[in-house]
Amino acid sequence: MSTQPHVVALCGSLRDESHTRTALGHALDGARDRGASTELLDLREYDLPVFDPDDSDAGDAERLREAVRGASAVILGTPMYHGSYAAPLKNAIDYCGFDEFEETTVGLLAVAGGSFPTGALDSLRTVCRALDAWTLPHQVAIPSAYDQFEDGEFVDDSLESRTRVLGQRVVEYARIEPNPPSFESEQNAGGD
């Protein structure tokens, strides 16, 4: 029996007027186009102190893990800061692990105030690979984000289409079953 896929988008921006959050909304629209239920996980709504492995259940950690674990697929969205992804997203991912990401389809989206945010996307792809996630080849890079939106809508139709396709693709690949298990998933127990 087929069940409705559920896609969550994890927003790594804490800004009130976040272009990342706006773009993730469009990606989630694409997921809904393919019949998925969706949820935006806004890190402003979670109490997540800086990750400490001695207190991995601090604050809202379990609530975050449950939301990610319950997803058929995940979209990670971030602004690019100094060539990489934002600290709030890194902190949230640190509270998660293999239980949340292993063999889970993940889509990537990054925005930048300037040039293409490929550094952030590359860094996220590396983290997802370490967690044995199944990261889509299709990704979204939004440069010059201040010029890309007007009243919450894209000004460039092709960029809007690419963003919606990301949401559609995570649904299409949500049930992928990568195998065999990776060496990393069996050996990477954490940095004790």
UniProtKB/TrEMBL annotation:
Cellular-component GO terms for this entry: cytosol
Superkingdom of source: Archaea
GO function terms (MF aspect): FMN binding; oxidoreductase activity
UniProt xrefs under Pfam families: FMN_red
SUPFAM superfamilies named in the record: Flavoproteins (SSF52218)
Cofactor: [4Fe-4S] cluster
Family membership: Belongs to the SsuE family. Isf subfamily.
Protein name, as recorded: NAD(P)H-dependent FMN reductase
Start and end residues of each NADPH-dependent FMN reductase-like domain: 6-146
